[in-house]
Every structure is written in C-alpha cells, then in structure tokens.
Amino acid sequence: MKEEPITFTRNVSHRGPDDFSNLKIKEPMRIAAGTEGIYHALKHSFKEMGVTRSIPALFKMNQKDGFDCPSCAWPDPEHPSPIAEYCENGAKALADEATTSHIGKEFFAKYSVEELSRLSDYQINAFGRLTEPLILKANSLHYEPISWEESYQLIAKHLHNMNNPDEAIFYTSGRSSNEAAFLYGMFARALGTNNLPDCSNMCHESSGVALSETLGIGKGSVKLEDFYEAEVILIAGQNPGTNHPRMLNALEKCKKNGGRIVSINPLLESGLVNFKNPQSVKGMLGGGTQLADIHLPVKINQDIALIKVILVKLKELDREKGDVFDHSFIREFTEGYDALMADLEQYELSQLIEMTGVGEPAIDQVVDYLANAEKIIICWAMGLTQHKNSVATIKEYVNLLLLKGAIGKPNSGTCPVRGHSNVQGDRSVGIMHYINPALNQRIEKHLGFKAPEHEGVDVVGAMKAMHEGKAKVFMCLGGNFLMAASDTDYTAKAIQKCDLTVQVSTKLNRTHLVTGKTAVILPTLGRSEKDIQHGKEREVTTENSMGRVRASKGVLKPASEDLKSEIEIVSGIAHAYFKGDHAVNWKEMGEDYDLIREKIDLVAKGFNKTAERAKGVGYYLPNNARERDFKKLPNGRAKITLNPLPDHQLAKDEFILMTIRSHDQFNTTIYGMDDRYRGIYNERRVLFMNIKDMKALHLNKEDIVNLNSTYDGIKREAYNFKVVPYDIPQGNLAAYFPETNPLVPFNHFADHSRTPISKSVRVRISRAEGQA
User: Fold this and answer.
1) Alpha carbon distance 474, 516 (integer Å)
2) Fewest CB atoms within 10 A around its CB: which of 239, 359, 498, 703?
3) Could you tell me the pTM of the whole model?
C-alpha cells in the first residue's frame, strides 16, 4: 500500500472502492460439498493457519470436548463425526479467526483510518487479528495503543458524563457466549438502560415475533433428529449449501429414509440440487444425492400467495376426503380454523398462482406430498424474515403446520435456521430491548438491583437515536454494525455523531474506520483460542439453533498474550464504572465463569445446573411448542391467523431486489471474492437478472449499471454493478450485501418486528456513466 500525505479528513470514504477486478462467469455448479468442498476448506485453512495449527483445531471443532464453530448455529449431532464435524464455511470461519496474520501498533502507525477506509471489506478483513487495545483520539487519523486499564477508565468516564443512561447503546453480535452476553446485558441494566439492540433485530426478529404470537415461543420446535424421519421438509427462503452446509447431512438422511424435500426460493441453489457428503467415501466418490424433489421458484416475497394456493387446494381435498387436515389436533389445540377457511374463499386461485410466478403443476405436486404426509418440517431463513410483511409470511407457513397437526410431535415442526452461532443464546440470557417483567423481578431478587422499566432501542431505534444526537456512547460486543445495518450512509453519519464508540473485536472491520469522536478497539479471544487464567482453562456455553446449550472450550494458543475474553472485558468496564461499589461483584464474575452460570440459572428462563449439564452434548432448554403446551397463549390455544397478500406498488420501471450472500462470505465477513456455486469468480459487484428483463432494458452480459431506490422522496444509490444473466423470476433482482445495503431505507422495516426490508427493496436500474 502506498503511503500518501494526509490531506483529508476522517470518515469520509466509508464504503470502499467501486472498481472491478477480473470478473469471470461460469455455469452455476449443481453439486455441493464433495471433494471440491474439502479442497477449498483445507486450502483456506492451511493458507491462514498453516497445517500444524489447522489440523488439531479442525478435529476439535464441534466435538464434545472441543469448541463450538464460530460460524452458524446449526446443531451438532448426538454422535459427531470424529473426523470432520464441520463444513467448508465452518472451516473458513475458523481459519479467519485463527489466522496467523496479526496487526498492532506498527500497522496503525503506518496506515491512517482514511487510507484503510478506501479498501474493500475483503481487503480490510484480510489484514488479520488485532493484538492490543487501541484508541483513535479525537481529531487523530491513526489508532495508537492504550492499556487495558486506561481503556476501562476512559469508557467509564464517558458513561459517567452522560446526562442519562439512555445515551448509551450496547449492541451485541451473535458470536458472543452466553456468559459474555448475560454479563453485558446485566451491566447495561445496572447502568439504567434497556438499549440492547442485537443482530437478531436484523435477521430473525420476525421469526421470534411470529412464532411467539402463534405458538407461544420465539424459537423453532424441532430437534436435529426430527429431520431424519420427516416425510416432507419445506425449505423456504434459505440457501443451506452456502449458509448452513451441515444441514445437508440431515437432509440426506431424510431422503434416504424416503422423505420429500421441497425448495421454495426465487433462486435454485446448488446445495439443494445434488449433495456429495464429505463425511463418507461413498458420498465423495459417488454420484451424490439429489436433495430437492422439486423447486418452486417463487417470486420475491410472494410466499403468502404460494401458501394460500396450497391451502386452498388442501382445503378442497379435505372436503372430498375428510382426512387431509388433522381435525382432532385443530379442535383440541388451535383457534381460528373457521375464520381461515372462510377467508380462503375470497381468493381467486388463478390470480394467486399468477402472483407466485410458479407453474400450477409443480404446486400440485407439492400439494400431493403434503396431503399424504403427517410428519412435516418447515425451515426458513432471511429469505422470509427481511420483508415488510415477514411476520405475516411466517404465520402463513405456521398455518400450514397447524392444519396438518405437524407441531409438537416427532419429525414435525418449525425450524427457523439461525445465522450466527449464538444469536439465539444471546436472547435467551437477556439480550433484549423490550421489557420482560418476570425477568426484571428475577434480576432484582438474584442480582440485587432494580432493572429499568422503560423500553430501550432496537437496531433501527439505535440508528435513529445516534443520528439525532441522542446517543453519546455506542459499544459493540462483536459484529460489524455499519456494514450489517441497513442504509449505510445514514448509519455512518449516525455513528459519527457519538462521543465515544467502543468495539470488542477479533479483527479489523469497517466499523472501526467510521467512528465517534473518540474510538476504542478492545481485542478479544476467538472461540477457538484457549482462555486461561491462573493456569486454569476456562470454558463458555452457547445455544444452538434448536435450543440446546453446550460447553465450548478453545484449544489454540491465543493470537496475542494481550488479548482478553469478552467476559473479562465486560467485567473490567463494569468494575471501572461502579468502582467496586455495586450489588454485583463484576470483577469476580470476570474471573470465575461458574459464578456467571449460577446467576444465569437463577435469572434466565429455562437454564438449570448449566455448569454441569452443558458438558458433552449439553441439554435442551424447555420448549412449549415441542410439548404441545399452549397454555400461556390467550385461550390456551395455538393461533391460526389471517394474513393479507403483499402489495409492493411497483412503478413500471421498478424491480424487486433481494440482497444475498456469496459462497465466500458469512454475514458481513468476506473470506474471498468467489461465489463458485453461482458461477461468479473474482468479483462481488454483480447484479443477477432475468435475461428477458435484460433484453427489455437493452442490457448485455457484463454491462455496468447503477442501482437506486426511492422511498419517502429520498433517492439512495449503489454504483457500478456488472449485469449477470441468471435463472431468476422476471421482475426480480439479486445482488450481494453489504454492497447493496446503501439501498435499504432505515425507516422501512417489517411490521411488528422492525427487521429491515433487505430482501424486497424497490429499485431502478440505470447505465453507469460512460456506458453506451
């Protein structure tokens, strides 16, 4: 990197370059995993960690006596493979965290935040692990070292200087352990605020709201073993081959036991076409397993229309045969059946089918599967949760399960597939911005202080509060808030209005470069690293996507002797703030994690003897939907609901854009520049488009275009994307995030859950400057 004279100000260039590398386009792959998956996993691991560091770490990941994968929240089987209980993206996540590339004071003395901000997110991440606490002083362009104690005292001073506790915002990433998240949430409440936004606000909040209102719990109801004997599995708005590859093992077992798998997604994703299981010789060398029996290429955000078609057809079959719906279950456990049957009468079937963009014969095949099945699982991810009507969409899928009696029995139920590895655990131990009176009572009883009784801000509220100058201190326990949040320009300006921003991080990301007046980076241990104090190795716990709590203990030598665990960092800040004068002994908590687990057992709902029971495979938290217990819902019954159709009100020149991940990416972390399953190499600024739409706009392959969205009279733009013809429904577009996040308006979000509309953004296309 060339050293340049400092002639610029801080935090101007905050989105990286818009230039192109050497884009190559190939045919999308139709086989997932296999030997090629192993090759790429090991290639990335050996490059980042070296062979001698990679092998022992990979062997311990997701094992009973090892550490939980730092990537997704897919559960581990009861008997994990002793050779490879991880996937390609899990290996990449481990390599990314355990890289031998490190950066410290010399690096930051050489490069200013402005120079670094001109780089891409991939380049920023590639520099390596942070090794010491750093401070970016007001009006400075360079981070410089600061001691741990000085950083704690600085943060405490800023917190004491606030006019009220709600001027502090405490954001949480889903990679944090239960212990760190619990301590963090309790510190915020002890300070006097419920400003606890977290990454679930941006992804599965819609799932939590929809499931809580219909089934009484904001979590899925299935266990991993339920997949094996399921008769039908619907996978909606999800790409497991890239985002949750270990899920393919469970789907393969379902197929071998005679189950049917239906893919419902605008894009046909490789992982559901053919899967070569890398955990067996036969799987790698054979022809693989065709997972999806049928793919329904539904138009973006037309799932409600699709499910209504299916329900109307099932209703007619039930009228003829009388046993398609589980009437015994409906009578005993639900309410709303008659209202739904009457509501379905108002729809014209042909109009619903047209809205979906799916051919009726394909829908009829799925109807046949469902009509003759009793054991049904529905899985979904952000393809359902990030729309204006996401909560209603998920409720419509729940309607299908309730009508079939496919809740609360083996091999059936709901499966929202969570993203980051402990995002569900964070919520379970108290990371929430809303008020839970029972939780507050337990806090007062067992921790000895009174929690605030007014609601805090979620992610959207945090952005707005900072933008309006109502927040002075913004702290992030992990994550890359700027690039994860919607409306990148708005979010960047909001962050810059804070007096102090604090990032607890393992690696450099763009949120370290767009900061408050003063910024502090506190480097932390990774999930895979040993956490040792006084010669004793410590462990933490996490909760997977299906509600099982298990222990996790790192095995690698830390990247630096100057790193601290997230728990130690939170306790250090809290101890500095309270100066040792508080009902909670924060310092002691940071030293003895069992003390935290004891408090979690007393304060967080469902946890019991965690220090003991979390060892090995761990234990499941209570789940009322799994037990067909709906007593806490109004009238003690699960809710069948009425859900209106979406109405996007598109102008003639507008398209619907959904943001997606590449195969070399997990959340906002970019591991590489390829998306080989979709045939994209060396580039991320691409726009997937139907060939008929391209012809209508006189666009050719690799033409360069700009995208813009207009909401409330405000025009937002994202520049320089190469057009790639792709099998996607007409009128629909797809492009990678975070490159397209600037198009997502901060103030347009899902009803009830306030999740950004990142999967259904109205956009227009224009040729880039200089294009013919």
Assistant:
1) 8
2) 359
3) 0.94
